[in-house]
Amino acid sequence: LIGDIERAFKLATSLRFIYPASSALAGYWIMTAPLTSPVGDMAGDLGEILVAHPDVCVALSQRALQQRNPSSAEAYALTSHKTKPAWSQPHFLLAQAELVRALPNMVGASLDAYSRFAHAARAEAHATEAIQCARAEHNRITEMQALLNRSKSFLLRGKTDEGFTDAEAAHKLSPDDVEALLGFAESHIAKGLFQEAATLLESSYESAPIVQLSATYAYALSATNTDTNLDKAIEVLQKITPDIPTEMLPPAAVLAIRAMTKRNATEAAKEFVLGLSGRIDTATELTLQSAIEQDASRAVTLALEAASHCSANTHTETKEFLGRTFMKHQRPADA
Fold first, then answer.
1. Are 159 and 117 within 8 A, CB to CB?
2. Residue-by-residue DSSP string for 190-234
3. Is pLDDT above 80 for 261?
4. CB burial class (10 A; 0-12, 13-18, 19+) of residue 232?
5. Residue 281 or 112, more confident
6. Residues 84 and 90: beta-carbon distance below 8 Å
7. Helix ranges, the chain (H)
C-alpha cells in the first residue's frame, strides 16, 4: 500500500483488533497514522507492554520527530536503546533529536551559539554510535543516514572539512538517494563551493524537481552571482513556488527577489510578489514590496510598515532582508 497511507492506516487499525500484541503491526499503525495524531495518545492506546517494545519505541520516536517533538523522540529512543543497546536505530534517532534542537526552527530562529554547539556535539556522538552499529549490522541505509546526521552536526559547528567528508561518504554509499545528494550539495555550499553544488543538483532537478532539492539548487545558483546562474535560479524559483510549503515560502521568496533585483528584473519581481499575495505573511509581503519599489520614499514607507508587522513568528530571512533594505536607504537605526 505504498502511496496510500490513509488506506494502510485503516487496515492496520482493523488488524490491531485481531493481533493486538503484534509489535510489527503496531509499528505500521504508528507510522501510517495522521500526522496530527499526538504521539502520546498513540502510546496510550497501545498499552504498557507494547510501548516497552524496542521496535514500537523506534516507531514512536520517529513519529515524535515528524511532529518536531525532540523530547518525546529522545525518551522513546532511550527506552529502545535499553533493550537493544547494539541496535543502530535508537542511536540514529537520538542524533536526530539533538539536531532538531540545534537546527533553526520553522521561522529560521536559532538557539544561542553555546546551546547550538552543545546539541550538535551530542548529535555527533550519537551519530558516530549509529554509524558503528549500522556497519556491524551491514545496514548501508542507516549508515548513510547516520553519516548525513554527523555531517550536519559538524557543519553546525563550522567543521566544514569533516562535514564534507561524511556527506561524501554518505553519497558514495547511496549515490541515487536524494537525501544523500542533498546533504553532499549542502556540504559543498558550506565550503563556498557554490558552482560545484549547483552542478551536483542540476541533473536531479531536471529529472525530478523535488521542492527542497530545487530550493537548494536555486540557492547555489544564486550564490555564484553570475548572470546566467541568477537567471536560472529565478526560473527554478518561479517554477517551484506554487508547490513550496508555507513554512519554506518566506526564505524562498526572499531568495527569488534578491536574484531578480540583482538582474534588474523589476517587472518579473512585481509579478512574482503579486502572485504570493495571500500565501505569505504580511511582514514578508511588505518587505518584498519595499525591496522592489523604485521610489525611495515609498520604499521606506513600505519597509516601516513591514517592520511594524514583524514578530517572533516572522522568518529571520525576512528580517535580515528588511534590515538590508533599511541600510540601502541610510536608516541604520531601523535596520
1. no
2. HTT-HHHHHHHHHHHHHHS--HHHHHHHHHHHHHH--HHHHHHHH
3. yes
4. buried
5. 281
6. yes
7. 5-18, 23-32, 39-46, 48-51, 54-66, 70-83, 88-102, 113-137, 140-156, 160-173, 178-190, 194-207, 211-224, 227-240, 249-262, 266-276, 282-292, 296-309, 316-328
- What pLDDT is attached to residue 106? 67
- What residues contact 313, with CB distance under 8 A and at least 6 apart? 107, 281
Q: What is the pLDDT of residue 107?
A: 65
CA distances in angstroms from 127 to 96, 137, 139, 145, listed in the order given: 8, 15, 14, 9
Q: How confident is the model at residue 143 (pLDDT cuts 50, 70, 90)?
A: very high
- Segment 297-326, tens digit of pLDDT: 999 999 999 999 999 899 999 999 999 999
pLDDT averaged over every residue in the chain: 94
Lookup: cell for 198: 549547483
CA distance 149 to 167: 9
**64 vs 57, 75, 78, 82, 101, CA distance in Å?**
10, 10, 13, 19, 13
Q: Exposed, middle or buried, 205 (CB in 10 Å: 0-12/13-18/19+)?
A: buried
Tally Cβ neighbours within 10 Å of residue 288: 29
Q: What percent of the chain clears pLDDT 70, i.e. is strictly above it?
A: 99
- pLDDT of res. 321: 96
Single-letter code of the amino acid located at 194: F
Say how many C-beta atoms besides its own lie within 10 A of residue 317's C-beta. 20
Q: Which residue has the higher pLDDT, 109 or 239?
A: 239
Q: Which whole-number Å values give the CA distances from 100 to 67, 80, 84, 316, in the listed order? A: 11, 19, 24, 17
C-alpha cell recorded at residue 264: 534588474
Give me the pLDDT at residue 110, please: 75
Local structure of 74: helix, strand or coil: helix
CB 200 within 8 A of CB 182: no
